[in-house]
Design goal:
By secondary structure, the protein is an alpha/beta fold. The protein contains 11 helices and 9 strands. The strands form 2 sheets. A 6-stranded parallel β-sheet has the order 1-4-3-2-5-6, sandwiched between helices. A 3-stranded antiparallel β-sheet has the order 7-8-9, covered by helices on one side. α8 (151-163) links the parallel β5 and β6. The protein binds adenosine monophosphate.
Length: 280
């Protein structure tokens, strides 16, 4: 596995690979877990070359969010990345991605970035779409791999690719979970032991809603209330949102008639966790 710290190194390695090879690209912020590795393995299985980026992107964190506390371990990451099939690891400094004075952003406007995570993190997706565009421009992948864990991010990236006619295909991989059901996340290590126990309520509340849906319940109001009540039964949780929305457009609905996304964001003292499930 090659490691590129700079854009010059990245370009040199990509040129050596040659233009006739297909490139699968996995953008991450590092502190890799099995969720990330599932994306790398998917890229490795379907492309000639797998490129992984590890970049804790400052523009998607607002002041006061956990940019500095975000966990990092490059040595461990690079070993895991190589074992999972990464050919080229891009690990740039912020100054490499954002040259001094950079003031250009890519922003997907509208409800899709304003609801869910956009409510409590109004500048977050602008940072995500900007850095993903920069990385797409630098790497020129055929297929880019994202996790369903960040369902709104997937919807926003797909819309950006469609709106801007970007020449890349977006592949979405299922949520990878811990044995007890907690969705894997780099932020899970930041949970205190008591919080870690109570965090199980995210996946459990979604499973309860899914069971009710499978038993025939179609009312968004009733299913939402089931999730909210489950989460609120754990005293260390603070609900950021519980939403049941159209899977593709993230539009609000009252009754489920087509594939639907049930998504939750829950804050613990310092850590905010996401989870979701598809009702189909
Ligand atoms: P991050 O490093 O958190 O920015 O995540 C990088 C990519 O990994 C994103 O596309 C995430 O959706 C994906 N990802 C994170 N956690 C999981 C998970 N538990 N299962 C599947 N994909 C994940």
């Amino acid at each position: 596995m090659k490691i590129a710290k700079t854009i010059t190194e990245l370009k040199t390695y990509l040129e050596a690979i040659g233009g006739d090879k297909t490139i699968g690209f996995v953008p991450t912020m590092g502190y890799l877990h099995d969720g990330h590795l599932s994306l790398i393995k998917a890229a490795h299985a379907h492309n000639d070359v797998t490129v992984l980026s590890i970049f804790v992107n400052p523009t998607q964190f607002a002041p006061g969010e956990d940019l500095d506390a975000y966990p990092r371990d490059f040595l461990r990451d690079s070993r895991l990345a190589e074992a999972a099939g990464t050919d080229l690891l891009f690990f740039p400094d912020p100054a490499e991605i954002y040259p001094a004075g950079a003031s250009t952003f890519v922003e997907v406007e509208g409800e899709i970035t304003k609801k869910l995570c956009g409510q409590s993190r109004p500048t977050h997706f602008k940072g995500v779409t900007t850095v993903v565009t920069i990385l797409f421009n630098l790497i020129n992948p055929n297929i880019a791999y994202f996790g369903q864990k960040d369902a709104q991010q997937v919807a926003v990236i797909k819309k950006m690719v469609r709106d801007l006619h970007l020449p890349v295909q977006i592949a979405v991989c299922p949520i990878v979970r811990e044995a007890d059901g907690l969705a894997m996340s780099s932020r899970n290590v930041l949970l205190h032991p008591k919080e870690r126990k109570q965090a199980l309520v995210l996946s459990q509340s979604l499973a309860a809603a899914k069971a009710l849906y499978q038993a025939g319940e179609r009312s968004v109001k009733i299913l939402t209330a089931v999730i909210v009540n489950h989460i609120n039964s754990m005293p260390l949780t603070h609900i950021d949102y519980v939403e049941i929305l159209d899977f593709e457009t993230l539009a609000n609905i009252e009754t489920i008639t087509s594939p639907t996304l049930a998504a939750v964001a829950v804050r613990f003292e310092k850590t905010r966790l996401l989870d979701n499930i598809i009702l189909d």
